[in-house]
Amino acid sequence: MADLNESIEESQENNNLPKVFLHGPPEFSFILQPNPSHNFHILNPSSLPPLHQFLSLNPHHASSIAAIVCTGGYTVNADVLQLLPALRLVCTPSAGTDHIDLSECRRRGIQVAGAGNLFSEDVADMAVALLIDVSRKISAADRFLRRQVQNVSWNFPLGSKLTGKKIGIVGMGRIGSEVAKRLEAFSCMISYNSRNKKPLVSYPYYSTVLELATDTNVLILCCDLNDQTRHIVNKEVMLALGKGGIIVNVGRGALIDEKELLKCLIEDEIGGAGLDVFENEPHVPKDFFSLDNVVLSPHAAVVTSESLMGIRQIVEQNLTAFFSNKAPITPVI
Fold this sequence. Notes:
333 residues, Rossmann fold, 6-stranded parallel beta sheet, EC 1.1.1.79, glyoxylate reductase (NADPH) activity, D-isomer_2_OHA_DH_cat_dom, glyoxylate reductase (NADP(+))
């Protein structure tokens, strides 16, 4: 009987707390584990069922959800916002925000909090790792050796050195700056393209990606995905990069015209690609799998044990600050 009374009291207490909905896949529940704050009540703590289904089963919650925590691939667009009249905060642990309609949030006065600078070093590490892997054919060499039998000639294609290469970085923000810092150690010649020239950045600036590709050996994509950057790397850019050129993408898959990339790789119009992101995730074109000049990663640039601990803290801190009538600690808008 005592346990029942405690359960009723806990339920009543939760009903008086601001409501937060987890909008993501089942495994997304880790984001507020193991000890979420007592300042808010988590709805859908196992990330099941999806939002629309949850609201159809629990329509009374539609007018009480004050915040959503969402991950990439789970959109918060105008249709979702229309369902949640009490929503005042969208919080995402993702490095990007292309899954959130920022204009509509701004119009409705809804705050958006992101991951801040948490993932910049991890993503930069992955960008450089992919570049080294593609240029020195590390994964391809591993597959080559595993297929061999004893006493077979090691007739393996030559790789390309990284030292001294001309590197073009698309998006000289937090991640792009970290990539540049790492590549300086390889005596690479760095230039960049961004929405605007950065007054405090000393690297040469190119106003278009096409011009950048024409004058570099490698393109590394670190920019956001939006209407202006979708397919910013098209066939013309790939051909300008040239037969020995390498493309590394740690931004978003749709920054590249994926069909044209496959054609250029298969026809040896470019030298190789290192891809952590894909245009229609989680689906990856199977034609990539047979290409030895491609290194693939399952959108894992941000996933380290350290970053997962850090993002839990940031999400909790953003929610706690918001529900204490303070500004989020990593605001987007």
